[in-house]
């Protein structure tokens, strides 16, 4: 959520920033509701002070004058009740409009969409094959790594079953991520997979994107859903809390499956594991002081790139333009891995800085030691990593002429083998 004070004092600055993400921005209704809210608060407070003063002094008045005061107090109380009711309505409408506004992109983030994304760097080179290379779908089937047909039988389209060495390779990736992030000082968490509405709201996914998740049937009036990413859970760990400054940064990571409805159909080039309804991911989260979040962002990008280099996979780092960033984020860099069969790069990680947008939605603050005042933290998240696109990339980039696939050296202690073969 954006700062209403900033919207009130610098509306053109806010509007110009939001136009990097949106086709049009009308802050008028928000400013009008904010103006009316402040009027109601001022009038209500004045009446409450007048009522309290009359109440305190009425017993000192002669009895013949008390009745007139009591009548006036009754009128004031009725007026206060009416003002409070209008205030509640105004605040509800104001909060609803504020919740729909996306985050303001950082100043150096380009306007527009994918066409304005910038490739910052590449690592490694595209593999060249002196044989007829296969796609990951064919390799998975030939080597008995993934059973797509039985996955569809169990869950429908967009699901699969890891088998034998395929399951071991998947788990090896997760083991590598866990080991790497523990060594970097992150706290390991295993959050619930069923979350409440407040988690989705704090993350900035609700109310606008509430239909993109799997909701839990039979939950009654309470909204519950399957987490689409561990970020949605971890961001709410300190919801409605005030942290001590010396506790920051808070650094967490979690392994979870991720459950996505993925509206729309799959393209022919996204068969297999490129896009699915359930996939595994390890997620990084940091809560920092505002002045520390740029360095935290860089450290998280480096963490992802470090893992990609350990795996020996060709990838590129892309800085996203404003409209390609998610609604909650002020800045995002994607790490994209090369998928030879698609002749394309596919995102395997997004590292993002939300600034104080999520913190305002979830009332997450810290007490500044020098001033004793509470300030909103900055929140950052990064996938490190999603396995459902790393797995295909490993198969395709490291395939051999005999149909086998080399296991990245860093994973061999987990898989127990250096090669995937029949």
Commentary on this structure:
The chain has 422 residues and is an alpha+beta fold. The protein contains 13 helices and 17 strands. The chain has two domains: 97 residues, Serine-tRNA synthetase, tRNA binding domain (Helix Hairpins); 307 residues, 2-Layer Sandwich (BirA Bifunctional Protein, domain 2). Strands 1-10-11-12-15-9-8-4 form an eight-stranded mixed β-sheet. Strands 7-13-14 form a three-stranded mixed β-sheet, with no helix packed on it. The protein has a two-stranded antiparallel sheet with strand order 2-3. Helix 3 packs antiparallel against helix 4 and helix 5 crosses helix 12. The radius of gyration is 27 Å and the shape is elongated. The protein starts with a helix and ends with a strand.
Strand composition percent? 15-25%
What is the CATH architecture term of the largest domain? Answer: 2-Layer Sandwich
Rounded Rg: 27 Å
The biggest beta sheet, please?
Answer: 8 strands, mixed
| Secondary-structure class | alpha+beta
- Helical element count? 13
Sheet with most strands: strand arrangement: 1-10-11-12-15-9-8-4
Shape: elongated
The helix fraction, in percent, is 25-40%
Number of strand elements: 17
CATH H level, superfamily name of the largest domain: Bira Bifunctional Protein, Domain 2
Enter the CATH topology name of the largest domain: BirA Bifunctional Protein, domain 2
Q: Distance between termini?
A: 53 Å
Indicate how many domains the architecture comprises: 2
> Which stretches of 5+ consecutive residues score pLDDT under 50?
263-268
The level-1 CATH class of the largest domain: Alpha Beta
Order of helices and strands: HHHHEHEHEHEEHEHEEEHEEEHEEEHEHE
Mean pLDDT: 93
């Amino acid at each position: 959520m954006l700062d209403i004070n900033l919207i009130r004092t610098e509306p053109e600055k806010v509007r110009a920033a939001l136009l990097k993400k949106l086709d049009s921005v009308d802050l008028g209704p928000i400013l009008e509701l904010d103006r009316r809210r402040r009027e109601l608060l001022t009038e209500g407070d004045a009446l409450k002070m007048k009522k309290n003063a009359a109440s305190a002094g009425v017993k000192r008045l002669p009895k013949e004058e008390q009745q007139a005061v009591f009548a006036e107090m009754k009128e004031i109380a009725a007026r206060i009740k009416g003002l409070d009711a209008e205030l509640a309505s105004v605040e509800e409408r104001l909060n609803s409009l504020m919740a729909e506004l996306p985050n303001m992109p950082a100043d150096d983030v380009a306007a527009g969409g994918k066409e304005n994304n910038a490739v910052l760097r590449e690592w490694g080179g595209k593999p060249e094959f002196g044989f007829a290379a296969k796609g990951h779908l064919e390799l998975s089937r030939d080597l008995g790594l993934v059973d797509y047909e039985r996955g569809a039988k169990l869950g429908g389209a967009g699901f699969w079953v890891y088998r034998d060495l395929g399951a071991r390779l998947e788990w090896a990736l997760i083991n590598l991520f866990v080991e790497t992030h523990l060594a970097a000082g992150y706290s390991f968490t295993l959050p619930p997979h069923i979350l409440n509405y407040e988690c989705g709201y704090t993350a900035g996914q609700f109310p606008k994107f509430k239909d993109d998740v799997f909701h839990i049937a039979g939950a009654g009036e309470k909204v519950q859903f399957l987490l689409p990413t561990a970020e949605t859970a971890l961001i709410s760990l300190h919801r409605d809390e005030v942290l001590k400054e010396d506790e920051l940064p808070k650094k967490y990571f979690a392994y979870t499956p991720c459950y996505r409805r993925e509206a729309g159909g799959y393209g022919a080039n996204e068969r297999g594991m490129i896009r699915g309804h359930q996939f595994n991911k390890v997620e990084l989260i940091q809560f920092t002081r505002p002045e520390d979040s740029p360095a935290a962002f860089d450290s998280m990008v480096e963490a992802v790139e470090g893992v990609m280099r350990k795996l020996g996979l060709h990838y590129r780092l892309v800085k996203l333009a404003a409209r390609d960033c998610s609604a909650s984020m002020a800045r995002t860099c994607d790490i994209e891995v090369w998928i030879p069969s698609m002749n394309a790069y596919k995102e395997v990680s997004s590292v993002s800085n939300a600034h104080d947008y999520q913190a305002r939605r979830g009332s997450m603050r810290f007490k500044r030691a020098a001033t004793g005042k509470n300030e909103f933290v900055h929140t950052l998240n990064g996938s490190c990593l999603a396995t459902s696109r790393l797995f295909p990339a490993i198969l395709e980039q490291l395939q051999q002429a005999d149909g086998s696939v080399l296991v990245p050296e860093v994973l061999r202690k987990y898989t127990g083998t250096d090669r995937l073969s029949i």
